Amino acid sequence: DQQVKQNSPSLSVQEGRISILNCDYTNSMFDYFLWYKKYPAEGPTFLISISSIKDKNEDGRFTVFLNKSAKHLSLHIVPSQPGDSAVYFCAASARSGGSNYKLTFGKGTLLTVNP
Amino acid sequence: GAGVSQSPSNKVTEKGKDVELRCDPISGHTALYWYRQSLGQGLEFLIYFQGNSAPDKSGLPSDRFSAERTGGSVSTLTIQRTQQEDSAVYLCASSNRISGNTIYFGEGSWLTVV
């Protein structure tokens, strides 16, 4: 039973264009969401997060949008650069719950940005 | 150290042998996590340590898996009688109150059971 779903295993975009990575969740207790980026042979690195009290958080080229009613979030990268090519993981936690430390991850989306 | 440090970075072992994976968290981080990523899968929670509290072991897949954290710092994940399905990247992460739910990962220990 996957509580965090990334339905696109891969995405390919041209350099300079927008990359949109999507994530859906089923657990209504989730109230904090994060995106991690992972290069091959490296550990995941934190990218950006959003609390459920917001619907948008922006950091440079990266923006995360949260639609609570749809239980959907997305990561926008504008403009995309070849160095953004990596696997992107969506993660969620229920900070108000008993296991508020536990992050539940999706399976990841491989983003390839073509020069 | 500056980041989460894990060793070994790569380990190939024969089926049935025991392995130990080590994690040195970021200095000052009280929370330590073990996750694993099998081929084609997401990150799977294994175990969580927070200070002197009892660890959350709910993610350990079988009793062949155990972990300890000595002195509130370094942690060791032990897999006994390894099986081929144990082959995965084992990722350690740590966090503190300031980082909240943002956890910081090490580079992982790649385990291959042959």
Summary of the model, kept short:
Chain A is an all-beta fold and 115 residues long.
Provide an overview of this structure.
The complex is a heterodimer of chains A (115) and B (114). Chain A has 115 residues and is an all-beta fold. Helices cover 0% and strands 52% of the residues of chain A. The mean pLDDT of chain A is 93. Chain B starts with a strand and ends with a strand. Chain B is globular and about 40 Å long. In chain B, β4 and β5 form a beta hairpin. In chain B, strands 2, 4, 5, 8, 9 and 10 form a six-stranded mixed β-sheet that branches. Classes of the chains: A mainly beta (115), B mainly beta (114). Chain A binds chain B through residues 4, 6, 32, 34, 36, 41-46, 49, 89, 91, 93, 95, 99-108, and chain B through 4, 6, 31, 33, 35, 40-45, 48, 50, 56, 91, 93, 95, 100-108.
Secondary-structure topology with pairs:
The complex is a heterodimer of chains A (115) and B (114).
Chain A (H helix, E strand, L loop, with lengths): L3 E2 L4 E5 L4 E7 L6 E7 L6 E7 L4 E4 L2 E6 L4 E6 L8 E8 L10 E2 L3 E6 L1
Parallel strand pairs in A: 2-11
Antiparallel strand pairs in A: 1-3, 3-8, 4-5, 4-9, 6-7, 7-8, 9-10, 9-11
Chain B lengths: L4 E3 L2 E4 L5 E6 L6 E7 L5 E8 L14 E5 L5 E5 L8 E8 L8 E2 L3 E5 L1
Parallel strand pairs in B: 2-10
Antiparallel strand pairs in B: 1-3, 3-7, 4-5, 4-8, 6-7, 8-9, 8-10
